[in-house]
Structure formats: structure tokens, C-alpha cells
Amino acid sequence: MRTVQVIASRTLGGAEGFFGRLCRGLGERGCEVHAVLREGSALAGALSGAVAHSSLPLRTVWDPLSRRELRREIKRRAPDLVQTWMSRATRLTRAPRGVVHVARLGGYYTPSRFEHADALVVNSRGLADFLVGAGLPAHRVHLIGNFVEAAPVDAARCARARAALKVPADAWLLLAVGRCVPVKGWDVLLQALARVPAQVDGRPVALVLLGDGPQRETLQALARQLGLAARVHFAGWQTDPAPFYALADLVVFPSRAPEALGNVILETWAHGRPLLTTASHGARELTRPGSDAWQVPCEDAAALAHGMVSLLGDAGARAALAAGGRARLAGEFGRDAVLGAYVELYRRLLGA
Question: Long-range contacts: 29-34, Cβ < 8 Å, 24+?
Fold first, then answer.
């Protein structure tokens, strides 16, 4: 089957990473995939050589010219099915007659804006219940999770990554991954770190933040204000985060409540690292506190700091959480199962 996958974001994040993984996986399953990206999107480089793609301005959701340009591009590609990702791409898309439109949503958007799609795919039970509760027919809402990929990391790559951070050789490394946006809760994470002693069990504590976004300068200013400039390392967005996961003693996921899923949770499990998370919507659904994650309330810097200190001081607890996460990932979030669910949904919608 021929598919067009449309995404309108400029920067890279969890959704964009999964977009690339799904497009490549669908191609391996025999689907013809063409990606339509926003002009200037960082995804163009990430997909280069792996997925055919083109670019359009994809301006605001109210722009009629963008809507016409996108409709013309979809007609030119002549797909059987078009899948749009997140709000802007979905609201701009009006599929030509005979083309099935699937909207893949990853957030708590206003449901009425997506009623024109033939089907909606969400990655969490919470989102599915939200859409159905808002009046969308249950038979049009489909729950399909995400999958992640984690290749082995050699020692040389880890050594280069650690050298780039310029942290003491014996430092504990706390890792947070995501975009610098309010929902990720990195301001609360910095406030929590300010409560953590400079050393735990005789080793200095350093925090590495992988990501970029509109709040980066604000967060850097907050780190200076809290006296954390020497302990916090803003490493920017990394196309290859694997060495940083491998180096991490603990991954911290401090998102606020509206976080719908959190690919970082799955990535942490895939890399076999222990996880400290807040009780965001996605984390409450995905994790089993005490088995595969240590969970604390959202927006609670004191509880987050307590979790960091407790886990850094307990190697057995860290190992147990890492093992629990690996088991959950293998049993419930496998690549083959997710790809199979998408292909089966496409076939069903196309009447094949």
C-alpha cells in the first residue's frame, strides 16, 4: 500500500523520533512511504537516505494556501492512505476523495478539530478515553503504543560523550532527555537538584540535559540563579543519545501531569537504565512504581530530590528498576507488535 506521512514540526523530539522509526519500519513491511515535512525541519537530515520525503511551508493552521499546497502534494503522491501527526498537520489536511485519513495524536488537543479524519491513533489509554469521553465514536479511536530501538554502545563512543561533558571522572551522572518546554518540568528538576548535596557517597553529582527548545535560555538562567551552573550540563539535542543513556547512573523524567506518554520512559528501559519519574498521565499509565520505576508526585521538587539521593545511594534498587524496565519493554512494547498493529489498521481501513 502507498502511504503519505505528514508532520509539521521543525525541531526534533520524541514524536519526531518515533515518526522516523515508524516510517522506516513500515517500509520494511512492504508499505511505500513518502514523508511530507515542514520546510526547515530537522527531520529532513534525520530521514536522509532512509525515507523519501518532500517539504512544504505548512504555515499556520488557519492558512488556506498551506491547505491547498498540502492537498495538491497528497494528490500528486496518489497514496491509498495519509497519516498526519499532531495538531498542525492534521488540521491542515483534507484528504482527496478515496484517500483514507488517519490522524496520529500525541497530546490532549481539542477533539472537535480532528473530526474530519477517518480514524485517530493514540499512544495511551488516557488519550483514547479522553477522545471518546469528548464524544468521538469509539470505533474511530485506536490505541497503538510506541516502540524504541537501542543498539549496543561501544566504549569509544561513551568515552567521547563523557569527555565532551567535562565532568569529573567519578561523578554520578543524572540524565534528562526531551525538549526545553514547560510540560517537561525541567525547572522543577533544577529546583530539586538544588536540594541534592554536591556529593553523594563521596562522589560529585552532575545533571546532563539532552534537548533544545524555547525554554533553554530561561532554564540556563535558572541554573545560574540556583548556583548550579557547574553541576548542570546543557548538551543540546543529540541525534545519537545512546552513549548518554549508557553513561547515566539514573534517568530522571520530571514531566508535568499533561504529558501523554513519554518516549523517554521506553528509551530508558531499552538502554537498561534505572528510572525516576513523576506521576504524569503517561508515566502513571506506563510504569509500575517500585518494579520498573521510582515515582514521585508532579511538581514536587523535594520528593524528586529525595528520589535522586535515595537511588544514587542504593545500587541494588537501581539494578532492580533497570531489570524491571527491560522486562516490561520486551513483553509489551516490541517493535514487531507495534508495526503489525499499524499495518493491520491500515488494511482494515482500506477494506483489504
Answer: 29/339, 29/343, 31/1, 31/2, 31/3, 31/343, 31/346, 32/1, 32/2, 32/3, 33/3, 33/4, 33/5, 34/2, 34/3, 34/4, 34/5, 34/77, 34/79
Q: Which residues contact 134 (CB under 8 A, 6 or more apart)?
A: 111, 112
Place of cell 492558512: 63
Q: Are 7 and 89 in contact (CB under 8 A)?
A: yes
Q: 0.90 cut: is pTM over it? A: no
Q: How far apart are CA 128 and CA 124, in angstroms?
A: 7
pLDDT at 352: 66
Contact 36, 55 (CB under 8 A): yes
Of 206, 172, 213, the C-alpha closest to 190 is: 206
In whole angstroms, give the CA distance from residue 222 to residue 227: 9
Q: What is the mean pLDDT of the chain?
A: 95
Cα(215)–Cα(220) distance, rounded to whole angstroms? 9
Q: Report the sign of the C-alpha dihedral through residues 13, 90, 128, 3, in that order.
A: negative
Dihedral sign of CA atoms 55, 1, 46, 253 in order: positive
pLDDT score, position 332: 82
Tens digits of residue pLDDT in 40-71: 999 999 898 889 999 999 999 999 999 999 99
List, for residues 111-130, the tens digit of each pLDDT value. Answer: 999 999 999 999 999 999 99
Instruction: Find out whether 275 and 292 touch, Cβ atoms under 8 Å.
Output: yes
Residue whose C-alpha is closest to residue 205's, from 220, 217, 195: 195
Cα Rg for the chain, rounded, in angstroms?
21
